[in-house]
Amino acid sequence: MIELKSVTKKYGNKVAVDNLSLCIPDGIVCGLLGVNGAGKTTTIRMLTGIDSQFTGQILVNGLDILVNPIDVKFNEAYVPDEPIFYTHMSAIDHLNFISHVFRLPKFEAKKQIEYYSELFDFQDQLKMSISSFSHGMKQKLSIISALIHNPRVIILDEPMVGLDARTTRTLKTTLKDHAAKGNTVVYSTHILDMAERFCDEIIILKQGCLIFNGSFSTLQQNMGEENSTLEDMFLELTNEKVKL
């Protein structure tokens, strides 16, 4: 579970996130939506501990991210939109390094790497240098790196970009299964039809403020638009001063 309590983040005089309070329960895939500049990236940076300069409180599985940053990070995984690696390493060296960071026993690390490499059709790339990888191959490696330590919370920022259709399907199924085991998945995307079909709940931010948090069907009911798509309602909400 993730809880944000009156969280505000400023860059100088600019308010990027404004008194944000919300709860993301266990067992769901939650979509994080908003136009450019809405506060999505800032929210992700705070949730992952990359940015700790904010007011308010963020709890991850009951742990305060400012008070217990290491414990929180051991229970989290993050897939950024632009994966960053030590490109002189091979993929298997990187995965072994990540396994060591998260203190996986060697036999468990080997089992997890083998499982996810097969699942994402990545076995042939394990011994290759990361410097030779395409964006899609780096994205696969980033996803496998996030999954191997079985995190309680996974946060993904546009994870489908650069992936082929088969890998996209595999990732969606894997994340749904992960959430069904009582874990939490936060998925930031601009692809609204994907969010409509894939996410159990959605969060919509506008100018750093929360304007909706709930299921797609609840959004339809609240707006009185039972036949509208998420894209239609999102465009209406983000262009009008509507707060639900």
Summarize the structure in short.
This protein is 38% helix and 25% strand. It is built from nine helices and ten strands. The radius of gyration is 18 Å and the shape is globular.
How would you spell out the order of helices and strands? EEEHEEHEHHHEHEHEEHH
Beta-strand proportion: 25-35%
Order of adjacent strands in the largest pleated sheet: 6-7-8-3-9-10
CATH topology of the largest domain: Rossmann fold
Radius of gyration computed on alpha carbons = 18 Å
List segments where confidence is low: pLDDT < 50 over at least 5 consecutive residues: none
Q: Provide mean pLDDT, rounded.
A: 93
Number of strands: 10
State the CATH architecture of the largest domain: 3-Layer(aba) Sandwich
User: What's the overall geometry?
Assistant: globular
Number of structural units classed as domains = 2
- Give the C-level CATH assignment of the largest domain: Alpha Beta
User: What percent of the residues sit in helical stretches (DSSP H or I)?
Assistant: 25-40%
| Major sheet details | 6 strands, mixed
Terminal Cα span: 23 Å
Summing up helix and strand content along with how strands pair, one would put the structural category as alpha/beta
Q: What is the name of the CATH superfamily of the largest domain? A: P-loop containing nucleotide triphosphate hydrolases
Give the count of helical stretches: 9
